[in-house]
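#lab-general

N.A. 3:47 PM
ok so I finally got the sequence cleaned up, no stray characters, all 509 residues accounted for. can someone with queue access submit it? mine expired

B.Y. 3:52 PM
send it over

N.A. 3:53 PM
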Amino acid sequence: MDVKADGETLTLEDVAAVARDQAKAVVPRDARSRISQSRRTLEGILKDGGTVYGVNTGFGVLADTPVNKEEGLELQRRIVRSHAAGVGDPLPPEAVRAAMLLSINTFSKGHSAVRTKLVDQLLRMLNGGVTPVVRSIGSLGASGDLAPLADIAMVITGKGEALDGDGQVITGAKALRDADLEPLELALKEGIALINGTQVMTGIGTLALLDMAQLLRTELVATAVVADALGARRDAYDPRVFEVRPYKGARVSARVLRLLLEGGDLDGFIEKRVQDAYSIRCAPQVVGAAWDATAWVRSQLEIEVNSAGDNPLVFPDEGDHIQGGNFHGQPVAQVLDLLAIVAADVATLSERHTNRLMNPALSGLPAFLAKDPGLDSGLMISQYTAAALVEEMRALARPASVNNASTSADQEDHVSMGMHAALKARRSVEALRSVLAIELMAGIQALDFRAPKRPAGPVAAVYNLVRRVVPFYGDDRPLGDDVARMTELVRLGEVVRVVERAAREPLGW
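B.Y. 4:20 PM
back already:
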């Protein structure tokens, strides 16, 4: 099904469908009408002698410098070229595609005063698989993602670099030719419209958030596996506990754990234990807090993907334009900082679960879940890997949005660092995926040592899935291969899907 980029109704799942699954985007007729109307409004303002920032003035600290009509078109070309100053590793294609879709959606709101011809160029590039090479470092999230968006704009005009169908770097001109497209000459206002906005940080953040939502479900599954393997008590998840402190995320998490731990022989089988360690007993409170935080992140990104982040903004109904600051990335930067914090917190919970399984004094299981402790090291070093990832995530959890750098001769004297927040959030989510994979591997290995006692039904479903991919760890073998296969299983969402089928209801909200 096509995704409607109408400036009003785009969902985060729509962004992922286009960015990752190559769904086609369309701009509906009413959005095209708004785009055309905003363009006519700008042309009317200019005809009447109005001063419009970035159209007949310079940029940044040069905003008070007039630019005559003959220089206006050259100004649009030059701003794109001068702002394509990024360095570092290219962003993944899915992030670039997300940003392209968000640019189209922003223009469809009808406040950017670009031509429908420009929107159609972006649309055909997106649907035709033309993916610009966008360098990851260069944006401070001040006037939005200037440098990364300029990389996209360069390809629109037949410059810059792009990826071919095999992922090889080719010139922007060749990429357009291969898609039967011609380079587009930018009209007045279009250069600045293309490079102003938060589309890159928002696109990266949207994909990271959706991945995080899946990983929270995965962590509940992993917690259930570990709780069963440790013979944990179930009364900590009693609904009455969460009625007297009714955070929604905690209530949902406890309900999921009750669902996953129903049945089997391992419910509190260590009778002398009055209560379990915090990492087991308080898991609903910890994962629940993560649920509630990510719900806030989602609510903010849902606003941003359907917002006008351009400058200046044109208001056709009033025949007016305003120099504003909607390109400032602070609303996005703050919530993506929160996403990185949440990922680190969940990772610490997961790593503690793995540690308890490894320690025979805490688990009653063989040391490091080895078949022959001493001769074999078992899963010992996988916990080192988890701990190393958690340490990286703690560093990434330091907020970027509290930092500042004054640029453009102090005209842009407060910046959001939103791109940094987005990159940190994306890396944190990637790291969390591997931490959870290690926890699941350890939990499943521990269940083997509990036989003939039977795990709960949904936990048994996870066991069967994992054992098809990662066999029992007997004689020592390279663990990195197992972790990689398990991480891919988590990434594909198979862990959550198999449990939802076994439990016969969705996990989470």
